[in-house]
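Example record for the data management plan.
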Amino acid sequence: MKRIALIVALACTLVLPTWASAQGGPGFLFNRPRVSIGFRTGYTIPKMGSNLNPIDTLGRLNLFDQSRDVFTLNRWDFAGPYVGGDLAARVSDRWDVSLTGGWARGNGPSEYRDLIECSVVATPCPAQNQLPIEQETTFETASVALGGRYYFSDRGRAVGRFAWVPSRISPFVGGGVGMMWYDFQQTGDFVDFQTGDIYGDDLQTSGSGASVYGSAGADISIGRQFYLTGEARYNLASAGVRDSYSLYDRMDLSGLQLTTGISLRW
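Corresponding structural encoding:
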């Protein structure tokens, strides 16, 4: 999935600008654009914080922390490619209202750090008979948000009564509120620490929670109606756990999202 996302991002960066430029070059529009729609791709890096509820007296564990302590996982196994889109309406030369949505997925194989399976009954277990106890972890998120963008300069200028020329670069900051959904799944072999038995299982939890975000980026015009957007966005969100992990602390869904994409304005 990571390779596919990187290939798509590269294609958007190299192929689409050339195609869009062929549709008319820098040029001008006969009317000031009011609406834009865009496609985004990039990468998400989760924060995976602990102690979301500092007054929690139940001693509940953080699922991310335990997964990294017990299994051979690290932060980048939970990070992953992102795909999404947005629809924006122009309020003024400096302000947009936008609706964004997207999906991200991190995936990584793992094994117990300190435990092995022995293929023969022997103590100690011979090195040639030591087998890893393996799992696969998947962390998926989906999000939708309503927000606004403020541009530091006008995004174009009127020429006479019938022409509008877009600016080459338009930096912006933004923010908004929304919802995030997640699905966390671990499939493979696990150890029962009470009996020492090894068993196969499919453990999962899912949930949703409110989110807020802040962002910064820039639009780069590549034609009369097309422009590229690069954005760094930080999301703040958390959600409850259930099913296989119902005794754990809340899931921290916060993290950094880096995206680039192409948009059409009209």
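Summary line stored alongside the record: Residues 137 and 186 are 4 Å apart (CA to CA).
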